[in-house]
Design a protein that fits this description.
The complex is a heterodimer of chains A (308) and B (347). With 308 residues, chain A is mainly α. Chain A contains twelve helices and no strands. The longest helix of chain A is centred in the middle third of the chain and has 36 residues. Chain B is of the alpha/beta class and 347 residues long. Chain B has an eight-stranded mixed sheet, with helices on both faces. In chain B, strands 2-1-4-5 form a four-stranded antiparallel sheet, covered by helices on one side.
Chain lengths: 308, 347
């Protein structure tokens, strides 16, 4: 187990270098002039351009730039934007907002998706089953911005139950609707996967044994059946956190949340390559660590899996 | 879950009275069918048998003869749908379980009637330790604390002769060998000290030497505890040592019931005769093994008359017309063959 963990952590190194370089190179290759519009209507004075080019190593090739960037990154310094703002600050303000939104989305999709999946898996072909199947298909088919605008308009504008946009303190109650919107598609998948999983395991011999032992139904389902059925659902949930954070850009836009989605978009437009790369680097880290966590959770859920 | 059996009707007993008879467990004219898309399969067509405290009844038959479905109906773990109980009673201490509430039936499971399954690897929950699955019964059914339940579970593992029971408590099912796992299964089924134990082909998944050990253990525990035991098997060799009585099933019916000795000495049904003839024997080494010709009937379309008539070497015209009822022949034995007397009296 310990050796497995070390090996997995070491595997993260090449993956991390590969992904970050790819991102760095992509942003570097995007055409555009970082000095465009920096000095108002006029072109920037050549001394200013020369100084900044020197400071940000803009004349070097992409490999050198990347190496210099990684060097300071390993010391915990994401660098500065061309206007001199610390990227660490930008990340420190944007990331918690997105993380909060993603965690709320994850919680909502886990609770609603799992409940729907378990109930329908136990009673297939009933009214609830059909309702869940149809509505989950709906959520999967609809783009996020449609779900977002419809819910924002219905709950925020028509019924005035919630504020249409999220205020900067991001209270939990205002995040419920955006969280639902962000997690809606995954929620539908969770419901379907857990439904299939429950329905499959329900007929398993060990469930029959548990009933034959005279255990109450809620224990048969809640302990014996659920534990086995959760295994595929956990993978889905674990890898979803990264996807939710990366995919939050549309939801953030609709509800006016100052998260990483907005920051990345703005930075791409202004060719702030260091900012884009830094935000994505943190996202990559989240993905990698969540994947590792899911693999470790497997062993906790299924003792037949051994790590060598 | 819909697995729990609740019979809509309570059919009277085969003798028409349904009165309590002092028997421990009685299956009385039980009828079960499976309704599938392809049609209705009549899986159990009037099965009647009983078991008393301290005796072992072996239920013998080919796969598909309905022996396991009968057991599942007794336990109330039949998948419903597709299964439906269409008639008959299952009486425990004289009370029909098919008309009991789900909660009443649940209480009987494990404590009144317990069951051992064929494939212990799939019958045990793979994600919980063997100890947990045994101790669970003491905690949930007896309300014991964790420590007490663990102590009792280790005692149970000890009773089924699992070496190092204490260490084995926290092992998972896949860490046990097949034989040890079946022992653990036995420990689990006996935890609540049931009055009746149903063993559904308990040794089928094991190799021969282990089979004998498990059967010895079962026999020993059954005698010690004076349980009634229903041993479901298709293996005539297993039956001879352990059983007191044998009920032979064919196409969802009991075709013969007799004491072990009588059945082996003088079978009163051509199907039983065929089964006994098909046991390999040392003194006939080198000769072709005798088999029963043909296949068991399709349960969606059981032939008219005696269901065994298409395969029966003794079949007469009457066998294709009249279903032979299960009738007493002599003391304590019965046969469902028009020519039972002739069979028993021949030399």
């Amino acid at each position: 187990m310990g050796r497995y963990l070390v090996r997995r952590l070491l595997q993260l190194v090449p993956v991390f270098i590969g992904t970050t370089f790819l991102i760095y190179w992509l942003v570097w290759a995007v055409p555009g002039d970082p000095f465009a519009g920096k000095c108002g209507e006029r072109r920037c004075p050549p001394e200013y351009v020369a100084a900044l080019t020197e400071k940000y190593h803009l004349n070097e090739n992409v490999f050198v730039q990347y190496t210099i960037y990684m060097k300071s990154l390993l010391q915990g310094d994401f660098g500065t934007t061309y206007s001199g703002r610390s990227i660490n600050d930008i990340i420190a303000t944007a990331y918690p907002n997105t993380l909060k939104l993603a965690v709320v989305a994850l919680a909502i999709e886990a609770i609603i998706g799992l409940t729907a999946g378990v109930l329908t898996g136990l009673r297939r072909n009933g009214f609830l089953d059909n309702l869940v199947l149809v509505s989950s298909l709906f959520l999967i088919a609809l783009p996020v911005f449609v779900v977002g605008f419809v819910l924002q308009w219905t709950f925020g504008v028509q019924w005035k139950i919630v504020t249409p946009t999220v205020s900067s303190e991001m209270p939990f109650s205002e995040l419920l609707i955006p969280g639902f919107v962000l997690g809606s598609a995954s929620m539908a998948y969770i419901a379907r996967v857990s439904r299939t999983s429950i329905a499959e395991n329900r007929r398993a011999d060990y469930v029959r044994t548990a009933i034959a032992k005279g255990l109450p139904m809620r224990r048969v389902v809640g302990v014996h059946l659920l534990r086995n059925s959760l295994i595929p659902v956990v993978t889905l949930l674990g890898t979803d956190l990264g996807a939710l954070m990366g995919g939050a850009i549309v939801t953030e836009g609709i509800f006016g949340i100052n998260g990483i989605g907005r920051q990345v978009y703005r930075s791409i437009v202004t060719k702030e390559s260091a900012t884009v790369v830094s935000i994505v680097v943190v996202l990559v880290l989240v993905y990698l660590l969540m994947n590792l966590l899911v693999d470790l959770l497997y062993a906790a859920l299924d003792p037949r899996i051994r790590y060598e | 879950m819909s697995d729990i059996l609740v019979s809509e009707q309570s059919a009277p007993g085969a003798d028409g009275s349904g009165r309590p008879s002092g028997r421990l467990l009685e299956v009385d004219d039980l009828r079960v069918e499976f309704r599938t898309r392809d049609g209705v399969a009549k899986v159990i067509n009037g099965v009647t048998y009983h078991v008393d405290a301290g005796e072992t009844l072996a239920v013998l038959g080919e796969s598909g003869s309905g022996k396991s479905v009968t057991a599942q109906t007794i336990m109330g773990i039949l998948d419903m749908p597709p299964g439906f109980v269409t008639g008959g009673q299952v009486r425990f201490h004289g009370r029909d379980m098919l008309t009991m509430s789900a909660e009443e039936r649940r209480r009987i499971r494990g404590e009144g009637i317990a069951m051992i399954f064929q494939d212990s690897l799939s019958a045990l929950n793979p994600v919980f330790t063997v100890g947990f699955q045994i101790a669970e019964q003491f905690r949930i059914r007896r309300g014991m604390g964790r420590a007490d339940a663990k102590k009792r579970a280790i005692e149970m593992l000890d009773q089924v002769k699992i070496p190092n029971a204490k260490g084995r408590f926290s092992n998972y099912p896949h860490q046990f060998s097949g034989g040890m796992r079946q022992r653990a299964m036995i420990a689990m089924s006996l935890a609540l000290d049931p009055e009746v134990l149903i063993a559904d082909e308990p040794t089928t998944a094991l190799d021969v030497t282990v089979q004998a050990q498990i059967m010895d253990l079962l026999g020993e525990l059954q005698r010690e505890r004076q349980m009634g035991m229903i041993l479901i098997t298709h293996d005539l060799g297993v039956v001879a040592d352990v059983a007191d009585r044998i009920a032979v099933m064919y196409a969802g019916r009991i075709v013969e019931e007799a004491d072990v000795y009588d059945l082996y000495a003088k079978p009163a049904h051509p199907y039983t005769l065929g089964l006994l003839d098909s046991i390999p024997r040392m003194d006939e080494k080198g000769q072709e093994l005798r088999t029963i010709k043909g296949l068991p009937p399709n349960l969606m379309n059981i032939p008219p008359g005696c269901p065994f008539n298409p395969r029966c070497p003794m079949a007469q015209p009457v066998c294709r017309e009249k279903v032979p009822p299960l009738l007493q022949i002599g003391s304590g034995r019965a046969s469902a063959c028009h020519f039972a007397e002739e069979l028993v009296n021949r030399d």
